[in-house]
Amino acid sequence: MKTRICRLHAKGDLRIEEIDVREPGPGEVLIAMGAGGICGSDLHYYQDGGFGPIRVKEPIILGHEVAGTVRATGPDVEELHVGDRVAVNPSRPCNQCRYCREGLQQHCLTMRFFGSALRYPHEQGGFRDLMVVDALQCVRIENPEISLGEAACAEPLAVCLHALNRAGMSAGNLAGKSVLVTGAGPIGALVVAALRHAGAGHIVVTDLQDMALETARRMGADETINVGTEVERLDAYGAGKGTFDVVFECSAAGPAIRSAIAATRPQGTLVEVGVAGDVAVPLNLLVGKEIAFVGTHRFVGEYAQAVGLIASRRIDVRPIISATHDLDDAATAFAMAADRTRFTKVQLSFDD
Q: pLDDT digits over 89-111, tens only?
């Protein structure tokens, strides 16, 4: 049995190839992939050969935002059946190291994560027609009206739900809170949706692209600001030591971080969601305003929560899905995903 794969051999060298697929073993299932979202990390691997200290050192199958249909089950698999539609959690922690034992599986010392070049040999990803995965990675999609493209958005939504939890801003304690989201890419837009679901008071979103800001409005933003053409509107929120109770910084751009800190009120919280290299931070403002500067990394139990929210459409992810291309046309899809003036989330489709 063969499957097509989307494999990166080096910077800019993306190839559609075929490899053999084995039968699922004990505790495993064979998934016919239906949809896979192109993430910012996939783009960095393709365009730059990596990001920060993480570099592609060998051919790697990309993709970690995936959903599909169970094609076959291995021995001892009882919870899943052929034909079940599932979102596939890309995280595979060891569940044995000290962090896993503490419930911090996102910090597993030997984490295996689809399509990641962090470890060597690299962890191969989900951009392929067929893939054997652990049954425990699969979360069944209970609503037949939900597309596999929507279900594939569970991974980035889980990242956003974890960011809200890191801020202490889960459902029930956001009422009346003013929130700023800097960066309206896929993660920023999904943070907005998660904030709206959790009951945020007033949500302001900034970006440099009007299209991204329009998507943020469709996801629930109350106000959007193009900081390239109307930065004075954001500057006004810095008066009187700042306005926002909580800020989710999703761009990892130095100027955005500085303006976010300026707009945060004393004893407010700034959650850094975006990832970049070394960035200068105005520590005097952080210290002087007693701002809690919080990092957030991946997710744990939020993945199953994200699938449930998507399946019930309590969070509707459809506005962020801009285009879908067959795996054979992956190069076009990656080029589109890099164009933030026209596209938010570009997905690949497979022979499911």
A: 999 999 999 999 999 999 999 99
